[in-house]
Model the fold of this input.
Amino acid sequence: PGNITAKRRGDGLYEISLTVTLTNANAGHKAPTGDPERHYILEAFVPVQEFLNRPARERIGQTWQWWPKARKTADNRLAPLETRELLLTFPSPVANPPIQLSLYHVRLTEENAAYLRHATDRVAPELKDQIAEIEKHYPFQSEIYRGTYHPARGWSIKPLAELMQANARPPRSQNDLRP
Done:
């Protein structure tokens, strides 16, 4: 995380701008990689109840049109050794708020999971039940970074090991799947 600025809006709220720098330092290939559906979601918001559903989000990865013929429609993955600066803006009730910044590695979207659930007539019978409840058996996403900004103390970073433990628990419901 980098520079944070605040600008008063006409509705009495503040528009917070957060500069985030991402670097693909060690992969040796574009990131994310693997299945074309995989992507990152960078998300920033003020962790106050009325602002939880108003995050700034940036998607990094490929997008595809699958029907009638598969074709890549966009690709903004990070190239090897590439550094990219992103500007995230989001509302806040105060000029110097706490901020949560998260990076998610998304492996499967809900739209594709819905397609898989409806295509079970094309899979082996022993897999039908698992695919019908795919969210219980396959991680849709993992939070791989979480930083929290405290106005008086600066940034604190949640250790990756703690995030991985939380990611290992299946979601209690579809509403638990963020973003």
Observations:
- The longest helix spans residues 110-118.
- Helices lie at 110-118, 125-132, 160-168.
- The beta strands are 4-8, 14-23, 39-45, 56-65, 71-75, 83-92, 99-106, 141-150, 154-157.
